[in-house]
Specification:
globular; 195 residues; 71% helix; mainly alpha; 2 domains; Arc Repressor Mutant, subunit A
């Protein structure tokens, strides 16, 4: 099935298409949110709450979004996730950290408490997906900070090598090489975890 058609069908309100988009992107988004939150914010808010808020905002605004295909959809929800994380950071700064280290969802949420989708997967599928996601997260965390950053910029935020170069402090060609090395290192970490 053409992934771009899922975007159009989801835009038309088709639940199955929304569930398919959610299933396709949730693990990648979760990993991206963990990376962008950082340790300090991750102690104050649940990653799953940020992921859920991101999808709630996406479903709310999908009709107005101009997207061309599945990759554009992930870039769009990554941008929404950055906005959600900004809202979390603002709420964290507004609160006295020594008084209450946790943040309530009502402190930063703009979408409410509803569940965006119920993917309807069976328990075996959910278990396998959770195990795979955990292996990907553990392998990602084992990478060097520079490798995590280049993967986040190129893969999660879908920035070009030209756009990522200033943020990484290197040339466009160096970004290409660094990205390849980072992906190879991630694959080695996954193999090590499987071995």
């Amino acid at each position: 099935m053409d992934p771009g058609s899922n975007v159009e069908r989801a835009r038309d309100g088709e639940r199955v298409a929304r569930e398919a988009l959610f299933e396709r992107h949730v693990d990648r988004l979760r990993l991206y949110v963990e990376f962008r939150l950082g340790r300090a914010l991750a102690r104050r808010v649940e990653v799953e709450d940020v992921v859920q808020e991101t999808f709630l905002r996406a479903w709310r605004d999908l009709e107005r979004a101009t997207l061309s295909g599945d990759n554009a959809f992930f870039g769009w929800i990554a941008t929404i996730a950055r906005h959600v994380i900004t809202d979390v950071a603002r709420a964290a700064r507004a609160r006295c950290p020594s008084c209450d280290p946790g943040l309530e969802r009502r402190d930063w949420s703009r979408a409410g408490e509803r569940d965006p989708v119920d993917p309807g997967s069976g328990p075996v599928t959910r278990t396998v997906r959770n195990e795979t996601g955990e292996r990907l997260r553990a392998a990602f965390q084992a990478l060097s900070p520079q490798h995590r950053r280049v993967i986040a910029l190129r893969q999660f935020e879908q920035r070009s090598a030209r756009d990522a170069a200033p943020q990484l402090g290197c040339s466009e060609m160096a970004v290409h090489a660094l990205f390849r090395r980072a992906l190879d290192a991630w694959a080695r970490e996954l193999e090590r975890a499987d071995g």
